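Re: the 522-residue chain
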Amino acid sequence: MLQKLDILKEEANTLVEQNLTAELFFDANTKRIILEEFKKLFPESSAVLQDGIIKITNSKNQSAYLPFNWFSRIRHCKNLINALIEYGNYSDILKRNLDDAVMKELPKIDWESNLSLESNTIISTFMDENFADDEDKERFSEFLDGRAWLDEKSEGLSGKKLNRTSEDYISSCITTICKLINDTAGKLDNFIKLYISSDLVKNLIDSCNVLTSTVSSGANGFNVIYYGAPGTGKSNKIDELAPEENSIRTVFHSETQYSDFVGCLKPCMNGSDISYQFRPGPFTLALVKAVSDTEAHFYLIIEEINRAAAAAVFGDIFQLLDRRYDGRSQYAIDVVDMDFKHYLENNCPSLLVRGRLILPSNLSLLATMNSSDQAVMPMDSAFKRRWQFEYVSIESDTYPRGNFNLNAGADTDTLTVSWENLSKVINNQLAGVQIPEDRLLGPWFVNENELQNSQATLAGKLAMYLWEDVLRHAHRESIFNTDKYPTLYQLIKGINANEMVFSDSIIIELRKLVEPLTPAEA
């Protein structure tokens, strides 16, 4: 009997979401076997092992890096993968009976209403011949519809069509579920296809031991970047994980340098004389703090990591971010700055192994990044692959409490709208004009203090962000009444005068959520 795809998809999504930082232990032999199987399946890839990962190079000498721990997320989807393989076998049979042009349309929402009568007849006959059980017919129909296993978007279904190989469309489905940032995902589908095609690899992955089931469990060090739209609560997630007394926090900006992060020799007063001594940066302070109490776990927190050229700020110490199974650095580095080395020798000599520096297992690095600002200082692949990325959604169960009193078009017509409702209506409108999700409004884009003076917040923060950042190049009319307020100056002036500044479509959607109130009632 065919399995219910919607249930398996939900299971896979839940497992991935709950284990975003899970890691598997791959010994040298396992990595070698996976590499050999990879080269068999993708002989053109020029695949080699480098720094414990698979590096592939194309004909243009461009390289991509495939971390073995991508298999951790793939493994969480194994029940869905196995079910889709079975559906794919039937799809291959159906492909022999249907024109390729029809297979290019499938999966298709409400396919029975959107395909020709001839195509419907062929599919119906196929299902009668291959499925004795009505439930199997219904489930295969849901497979052809697509919504049971693919995400529905405004332009249709995500993923590849059934005219492709089953490995192709299964991979496109699983890639979405795996929740990797687009730049990070790279050739993830290669690993998914390898998992599907090679029983040897599949058995190896399914039998691997898990090192860390969640970010917050265990004492092993890890590196995580929390990314998402402004106001989604990235810093709050870190605060919930990392106690203040066990943390060193810093903020990157465009002028941050290696010497700021690690430390450098600086002048200081010694009585009336000027002398020089090494002043530790946040990285070095975190090292010392971790060594001072090996029974506790410590955190180096970097806010806005992509506001600086992160790889340059880390310099040679980014090599330390590769972790062994116990959380210590997999590779040590030579400390060439003698002032830095002398400071380490005096304050944390246990981290110098034969004069080379390592990260302790009880020190983790946590960072935040507004994904809408990725272009500020792009990260190179070598740096990014040493981090895990955890997406923080714009959806939340809690919102700051506070209301906006909005002019709805007439002198006596005022809408009292909660921040939750206003932000959701604006986000839906932005999504409707194809604004990327990472530029939408997070639940905590404004806080409760700002909502105490909601009109000032609307004029000085919300309108400014939407007008100048989100809608700078197009679609301002989707949110604001641009016929009456064609400039930001006029818009803010209209807000301060409590005029109707939002577009008709925004007001219509808000009316569906709240009852209009008179100024006296508001």
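The mean pLDDT is 88.
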